[in-house]
Amino acid sequence: MKVKMLSRNPDNYVRETKLDIQRVPRNYDPTLHPFEVPREYVRALNATKLERVFAKPFLASLDGHRDGVNCLAKHPKSLATVLSGACDGEVKIWNLTNRKCIRTIQAHEGFVRGICTRFCGTSFFTTGDDKTVKQWKMDGPGYGEEEEPLHTILGKTVYTGIDHHWKEAIFATCGQQVDIWDEQRTSPICSMTWGFDSISSVKFNPIETFLLGSCASDRNIVLYDMRQATPLKKVILDMRTNTICWNPMEAFIFTAANEDYNLYTFDMRALDTPVMVHMDHVSAVLDVDFSPTGKEFVSASFDKSIRIFPVARSRSREVYHTKRMQHVICVKWTSDSKYIMCGSDEMNIRLWKANASEKLGVLTSREKAARDYNQKLKEKFKHHPQIKRIARHRHLPKSIYSQIQEQRIMKEARRRKEVNRRRHSKPGSVPVVSEKEKHVVAVVK
Amino acid sequence: MSATGAAESLLTLSHQEELADLPKDCPWSTSEDEGDSDRERKHQKLLEAISSLDGKNRRKLAERSEASWDVSEFSVGCEGTGEQLVLSDLLQPIKTSSSLATVKKQLKGVQAKKTVELPLDQEEAAQVHREVAFSTTSQALSKWDPVVLKNRNAEQLVFPLKQQQLDFAPIEHVLGGWKARSPLEQEIFNVLHKNKQPVIDPLLTPVEKASLKATSLEEAQMRQAELQKARALQSYYEAKARREKKIKSKKYHKVVKKGKAKIALKDFETLQKASPTTALEELEKIEKARMVERMSLKHQNKGKWAKSKAIMAKYDPEARQAMHEQLAKNKELTQKLQAPSESEEEEGAVEEDGLFVPDVVNEVQMDTHGPNPWMHTSCTSDVKEAEVLKDPEQLPEHLAFEDSEGEGEEGPVAEEAMLLKESEERRCLRKRPELNQDTKPVGRQETQDPSSQEVLSELRALSQKLSKEDRQPRKQKANSAGAILPVQREEPAREEEEPLLPQRPERVQTPKELGKGGCSQNTELRRPVLQGQQMEKNANNQPDAPKKKKRKEQMIDLQNLLTTKSPSRESLAVPTTIDKLEGEEERDQKQMIKEAFAGDDVIRDFLKEKREAVEASKPKDVDLTLPGWGEWGGVGLQPRAKKRRCFLMKAPEGPPRKDENLPNVIISEERNIHAAAHQVHVLPYPFSHHQQFERTIRTPIGSMWNTQRAFHKLTTPKVVTKPGHIIKPIEAEDVGYRSSSRLDLSVVQRNPKRLSIHHKRPLKKNSVGGVAGDDVLMS
């Protein structure tokens, strides 16, 4: 019996040197490549499945603190350096590449309330329960030198937060009022108040650097203009806002982490309705930080999880949790937008990948092309039910899962009640209030 | 005069005082001048003095006769009339006096001013201030709107937005900024300083500097000229070398190489005479090179290039030649070097026999694409037997080797030697077929039929031709030209060289070539051609063939010979024994398939299936007849036809089937539940029409359906970040705006007062003090 075989001359498809471009003879005649949609659908499905298979976001846990981690700060010039302050007044500087603590300072008595780095990366500021603000050198003390702060400011009240200006030698603290300090002086160059409650955090706008935002325990968010030395506007929400974070790419956008389990993204020019209400957490949101690309942000919650939200979406795209992670108090997105760090109650700082299934390390061009293609396929077919189901599927701790169910029921009940009330009362007397408007109590000029 | 002047000045002064107070007490009162009489009197006097100065006034005063309780010095009062006092009334009397210009001016200023409203409540004031500040700030922020919009809609954003520029600092700057800290570094620097070594720019020691200074101009010029010359020479040599390297002529390179070899050999000889030990070393080196060559596969037709050539060799004589050359090279390199003192002529010839043999083997192997142990042994043994051919059978490779080696001695006689070799080769060519035919019967056993023999002969011919070409390309042309006629294709070995030639790859000949070379070779070529079989027979019955072969021949059945086909022309190297069975096999296969699927009639089955599917999908008529209604009913009774017709609801004609005109297809239009699980039910958010959405799904993005460029374009990610790069917040300068925040601090410091005015300030003292600069630097 004769066997007929195809034979090809290797000269037609083998590269002469390995630096040559791969020769792929291809006939683009569509009749030769039928079923493009089903084939791409299958590819998209596979890509989605593989994404879930490879989703291993947890990278490392930095342990060494002896109390809950209360605050985190990024180094402005070095990606590998991160600073953390704990509830026992200890500040640690970490090297992320080695995953080791490189320096430990007993900075305060009581909590380290706030920590921030100078824009040049040479020094950093801490503030604590002992009513002091201290400036420290980033480099450790030389041999034989004592570990002591460069400057110490003793205040009259407790400072609950601190943030440094992005370009100048100015920093701001908050407590009873928002104080703006020159680094060289012991008294603030201006202090601004509006209301009497204690202010929990203050943040400089990274783009229009004369703007500040603060949030106080009387449920309000206040914006300040440093140049005119005046508050600008105040918005009062349903519940207390824990902290805010400015978008590093959009000057007028900031996001507030609220006690009512939600996050609110505001356009500071129109505070009466938030641009977006981000809800998925099942407990108070304690901290929020934007990705340096300004497209996403990460939030830390009391429900022992962190979530990643796209700025324009109201639901999170990712949730990270581990069995051992307790209430997450602080969270930061690294400056190369690849990693996320979170500090939690149980004294650990955890390092996560921002993109759970991303491959670490250098990619070859073919890997890159495949990744891009898969990404595009997933995006193209994201509305298809099977793909959507697989892409959305996350494992959650039982507590969070049951909380979500419970809250869903509660929300549904509330909605039903409102609908019933509307149905049984005079038309127009029970207006329809959108979710966005619901949470803003008032805007004070 | 002087007294009046003083009085006048005094008057103006007093007036000024009064008027300066005017804005303070707004309601005008005239009762102020009810002072003591003394003062009154004095005032009267003053007035008189004034009146003496101004005639008009005096007259007016003189006219006043009416008694009034309160007489104003300006003769105006508002008591009686109930009118309000107007400033213009006050101004009237002094209108004409030019000396009161300043007063008038001030009064006018007062007249223009309105009453200041009550200051606002502090809270309200703060609010107003805030509102203004907010509106200005939000206006300032709205300059970011286009940037934000652009970034949100961007196809691709590459972060960091601002690409870093690498700036290279010269080494001197780097060194200048660097200071020795550790003791070791300091020591090193000390040593450097002691020896007056340069640490920073310029990198010259003082001695060097001095020497630089010391050289005279002439010297420098001479040196420069020298350098220039050297450089020019170098460039010439380089150019020459490049030119020579570029010469493509192989002959030229061969000649050059040969020349070099000659020189080397001469040197070697002289060296041998001068110092035998070094010569021995040299010899060892050569030997070692040979060993290396033997070990390596470098010239053994094993490389990629050689393999590619082997593919081509079948058709391209040049490729064949190239391969041969490589083999020859191998031969040459692996040739054992003779001790130079021995007589080369005799021993070389003896060895050449042995050496020559594997070469033939090599050729054959190469041509048949596979090592054949049978061929191997038979060939060698046979050749060893055929001693007649001993001398002329030297293969070109070997000859080539001889060229390179032996020419050292021959020297000037090289041309003669060339001629000699050519003639030898001609001879060899003529005798070669004999050898080939010798080998045949031994190589192939009894199973072989003449056709396969013929194949073998073909191979032989090919190999021989290769060898010949290797040696003399120009001769080969004439040779082949003379030998070939298209009609003679089937002709096997008839004469000594004829049978081989027709089966060479180059079969088509131009008439010109024919005419040129034909006569030179043989006249037999033009003989009429016989039938193929007959010729084969003839070939087998060659008279010059040795006896062994004849014996074999007897075993071959004549009938068998006649029935066998002549081998196909397409494949030279592949044995053609398979071909004759092909037809039978095909028939067999068909038969087998028929038997296997004897009962199947696929087409009819399919048609039936389709008919059924069509029937099933047709809408059914509904029969609404009720048996027994209006008539008798029961077993065996059918409703009347008329009634049935009446109550039969005809089903409406459905839409035409999609596969109506496609005979080979069944298209099911039923909804597939399994597929439905994968389909989108609701139109997703950004799309407004389902066609829009379908269109996005329908366009494929893979590289299978798109060109590479389109694929890249379609799959560009929206956000690209570089690993390890810090992404800074966007800056006004990045997008071409002026930075507004440069003076944040200075602005705050410039207007500290406002802070104290507008805000409740628990730490007022602090802030003011901070600005005043009385604070102490933090330690």
TrEMBL record, chain A:
It is found in: Nucleus, Nucleolus. Coiled coil: none annotated. Residues 354-440 form the Sof1-like protein domain. PROSITE patterns: WD_REPEATS_1, WD_REPEATS_2, WD_REPEATS_REGION. WD repeats lie at residues 62-104, 278-319, 321-362. Residues 417-436 are annotated as: Disordered. GO terms for molecular function: nuclear estrogen receptor binding; ubiquitin-like ligase-substrate adaptor activity. GO terms for cellular component: cell junction; centrosome; Cul4-RING E3 ubiquitin ligase complex; cytosol; nucleoplasm; small-subunit processome. Pfam families: Sof1, WD40. Residues 417-426 have a biased composition (Basic residues). Its main location: nucleus. Pathway: Protein modification; protein ubiquitination. GO terms for biological process: decidualization; epigenetic programming in the zygotic pronuclei; maturation of SSU-rRNA from tricistronic rRNA transcript (SSU-rRNA, 5.8S rRNA, LSU-rRNA); negative regulation of phosphatidylinositol 3-kinase/protein kinase B signal transduction; oocyte growth; proteasome-mediated ubiquitin-dependent protein catabolic process; protein ubiquitination; spindle assembly involved in female meiosis. Belongs to the WD repeat DCAF13/WDSOF1 family. PANTHER family: DDB1- AND CUL4-ASSOCIATED FACTOR 13, U3 SMALL NUCLEOLAR RNA U3 SNORNA ASSOCIATED PROTEIN. This is DDB1- and CUL4-associated factor 13. It comes from Loxodonta africana.
